[in-house]
Amino acid sequence: MAPIPTGRERTFSPDDLIVSKTDPKGRITYANDVFLRISGYEAEEVVGQPHNLVRHPAMPAGLFKLLWDTISDGREVFAYINNLAKNGDHYWVLAHVTTADDRGHLDGYHSSRRVPDPHAVRAAEAVYRDMLAVESRTSGGRAAAEAGLAHLNGVRERDGRSYDELVWSLIETGRRSA
User: Does the predicted model carry a pTM greater than 0.85?
Assistant: First the structure.
């Protein structure tokens, strides 16, 4: 059963690097000590489980559709993600996800996560709230993810930015609204 969000935020050091690896279907094959410490899970509890084990329910499905579409094409992706610890606390990360490739054969995915800029988190929260509102007006599942992604693409296109430019601009956007 998924943990119930507590509303409490966990923090970690800017020197910490959360690392995990998954198979091509997104099941965890490796989690470093920082991942385990911050998430509150033991290695035996995460290895073999879908990575969405730590997905916070306040994260829009459209963002994960974008993430999967991007890495499935063999491209790297950066994203601000709110994760859910075993006890229901949450922790924000700036994730960098890449493919793990063994001579042209997809072995899975590698994700490194760092402490995000707090201004970027505030700006990302606003974008994600809007995506969630759009998704909630849709029948759910794939349709909701598509609607959320369409909204994100609309924001990106309105500003004339690529997704990567949007991600990095959230730092400045958050500072202006602070």
Answer: yes
